[in-house]
Amino acid sequence: MSTSFQQQPDGSENKDEMIVQEHEHQHESEHEAERSGVGASVRDMAARLPEQLSAIGRDISRTIERAISAKDDYMLAVKVSQDAQIKLGQLVQAGVFGTRAEAASFLIDEGIKTQTALFERVEQKLGEIERLRAELRGLVGEKKTENK
């Protein structure tokens, strides 16, 4: 009796060995197909990357142009940390903004937009404060008339 690794007396390979070899070839083919599929996906993503980066750049440029084109009505002197000054300078150096003041203005506006809940709460409290002031002025006004 022959084992699966022995040749038959007529020189042909054993049937079991052929099945094992076929299975190995099939398994290798599946891995090769899987690798080529992954490679194709990576190539597709890499091909689309420049277009996506360009679109992001256009969106950022439009946002910055809108911020710069808005006419500012007020000048404000602001102290900033050394780190903030460096970052503002980098934006100017990169050509994103013409001046540090423009960069700071844009970043302040963006910060305010992200803190809308805070500013809504502040407005509410300011309304309450104004109501209390008016009430106190009314009380003082009554006292003035009584004392005359």
Question: Would you kindly provide a written description of the structure presented here, covering whatever features stand out?
Answer:
- This protein is mostly helical and 148 residues long.
- Helix content is 77%, strand content 0%.
- It has a domain at 11-70.
- Helix 2 (82-93) packs across helix 3.
- Residues 1-5 have low confidence and may be disordered.
Question: Helices and strands in order, then pairings?
Answer:
Elements: H1 15-69, H2 82-93, H3 100-114, H4 116-147
Helix pairs in contact: 2-3
Q: Tags for this entry?
A:
mainly alpha, about 150 residues, about 75% helix, elongated
Overall strand count: 0
| N- to C-terminal distance | 132 Å
Which residues sit in consecutive blocks of at least 5 with pLDDT less than 50?
Answer: 1-5
Beta-strand percentage?
A: under 5%
Largest sheet entry: none
Put the structure in a nutshell.
With 148 residues, this protein is mainly alpha-helical. The protein contains 4 helices and no strands.
